[in-house]
Amino acid sequence: MDKIRHVPNLQAMQALVEVAEAGSFTQAAHTLCLTQSAVSRQIQQLESHFGVALFVRSSRRLQMTPEGELVLASARTILEQLKTLEDRLSPQKRTFRIRMHVSLAVRWLLPKLSDFYRHHPDVSLSIETVATEIVEPASDSDAYILYLPEPSSDPTCLTLFEESLIPVCAPGLGSPSRPLNSVEDLSGFALLHRSADKQAWIDWLAANGGQSLEHYRHIPFNLDELALDAAARGLGVAMTDLTLAEESIERGVLVVPFGHPLKTRGCYSLCLQPSAASHPACALIMQWFAGQAEGIASLSETT
Prior knowledge:
This protein has 303 residues and is α/β, with parallel strands linked by helices. It folds into two domains: 3-89, Orthogonal Bundle (Arc Repressor Mutant, subunit A), CATH 1.10.10.10; 95-302, D-Maltodextrin-Binding Protein, domain 2 (3-Layer(aba) Sandwich). It has helices spanning 10-22, 25-32, 36-50, 66-89, 102-109, 113-119, 199-207, 224-232, 242-250, 282-302; strands spanning 55-56, 63-64, 96-101, 125-130, 143-148, 157-168, 190-193, 217-220, 237-241, 262-272. Strands 4-3-5-10-6-9-7-8 form an eight-stranded mixed β-sheet, sandwiched between helices. Helix 7 (199-207) links the parallel strand 7 and strand 8 (217-220). The N and C termini lie far apart (78 Å). The model has no long low-confidence stretch (mean pLDDT 88). Residues 8-65 form the HTH lysR-type domain.
């Protein structure tokens, strides 16, 4: 009888893939919801199993050995085959994974999810959020929503809505002694920024006859969500996208004190990963998102 061959640990192979893609044990540990030491132990298990070093230990950067590259290629193939088998055997159990900026998830998608599940109760969406300005697609995501400076001609990208910048603030922020009725009145209030470059305010002020930024007081944030919450609490006036602020405006939490929306040609687009094609609900999901996009376009034409 042949000797039973021991196979490498699947979790260790997944850790290897994550470390290689992230280029960091720390980032891989964060993605896997493990400690850095746990990820290191899993890599050591693989090295012990194959009897070779997988990484060149260096304080400068993480570099794989030639043997590590071979193990990585096999690990990716094995994990992808297992994922394909799982999807084939239990297609309805697999969630459709969408990656997007946290502000977009909270301000735009979350209020619409009840409608999605009312129409598709058997389909499960997994929403993964990031706080970085650029949304990078992940290897385990089916789709991702990102901001583009102009609409894409890529057939796998669906334009959800075009960016229209507007100022928003808490109701009654102005007063008879300190009015907030025009762009000239902005000098009496703080400008709330959703990003470090302050570009949204720069563009809107330039299009509406405002002064340069040095004439105003500023409160910066790194998220649109934080800037809008600060505006609702009366800290100042935020510049945001009309669609992202729509629900708060309808609820009366925020108001547009003056001015008209500024179309920037930028847009938010839903882009598919190659893995999405194997998901049985992909067509239904894209159809629902297309319906949301059409609703926004129709509303923009009437306002």
